[in-house]
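in:
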């Protein structure tokens, strides 16, 4: 039996988005009225006078991505199915809906499906005459020799930095450069006591034994780099901070992700 309350798994993402729109405290979020398979949450107060900042990816990572839509953050979030990248068509709809003469920036986590679908949508949008730039977040340092680090917790900081720059009226090239600078100076490392569980799944036990934590596991439940046999907060933070400091150097930004 699943550990979640839900009605219909096929409608789970749609139900979650509808609930978020209804409960948004400032009433500032809307969903694009298009194909039901296209799930794009946008700022209700957006007027295209500034650079748009768009992100997205698979659902199930809340509050990312739709939870970060708002003033000084994302202009729009493209929501895929559970742990699945949104389609090229969904991303393209988001770009066309919110992009004006100032252009838009796509912030994409470093996963194959996201890179491919957002990248193809960007190329299509450019053929429509829209100005589109894209940055890839790859902040995970769980595997030091990994040539394709994943985008994890640090992505939210890139959202904030780019969103603030756009809100201040900066140009697309300036917003892109600030986002790239953030990406180049950001390192994250994850830790958890249990793996994620998909609604409707019978896998309740997980692979992490009681009293242990896993370092470097992925946001989709991918196995981590190592297991630590303690749940002591101080010891775990020390274990996380050492490789982050080594990677970042003095005075840099590093994010333990717990």
């Amino acid at each position: 039996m699943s550990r979640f309350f839900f009605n219909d798994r096929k409608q789970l993402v749609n139900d979650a988005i509808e609930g978020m729109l209804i409960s948004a405290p400032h009433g500032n979020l809307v969903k694009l009225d298009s194909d039901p398979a296209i799930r794009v949450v946008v700022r209700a107060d957006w007027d295209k006078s500034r650079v748009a900042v768009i992100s997205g990816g698979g659902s199930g990572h809340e509050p990312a991505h739709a939870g970060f839509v708002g003033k000084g953050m994302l202009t729009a979030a493209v929501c895929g199915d559970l742990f699945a990248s949104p389609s090229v068509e969904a991303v393209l709809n988001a770009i066309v809906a919110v992009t004006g003469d100032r252009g838009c920036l796509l912030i994409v986590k470093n996963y194959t499906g996201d890179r491919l679908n957002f990248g193809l949508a960007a190329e299509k949008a450019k053929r429509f005459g829209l100005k589109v730039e894209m940055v890839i977040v790859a902040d995970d340092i769980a595997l030091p020799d990994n040539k394709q680090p994943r985008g994890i917790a640090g992505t939210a900081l890139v959202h904030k930095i780019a969103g603030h720059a756009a809100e201040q009226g900066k140009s697309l090239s300036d917003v892109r450069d600030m986002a790239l600078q953030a990406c180049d100076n950001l390192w994250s490392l994850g830790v958890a006591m249990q793996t994620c569980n998909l609604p409707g799944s019978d896998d309740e036990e997980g692979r992490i034994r009681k009293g242990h934590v896993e370092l470097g596991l992925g946001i989709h439940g991918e196995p981590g780099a190592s297991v630590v046999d303690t749940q002591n907060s101080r010891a775990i933070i020390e274990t996380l901070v050492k490789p982050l400091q080594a990677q970042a150097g003095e005075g840099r930004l590093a994010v333990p992700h717990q």
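note: The chain has two domains: 11-184, 191-248.
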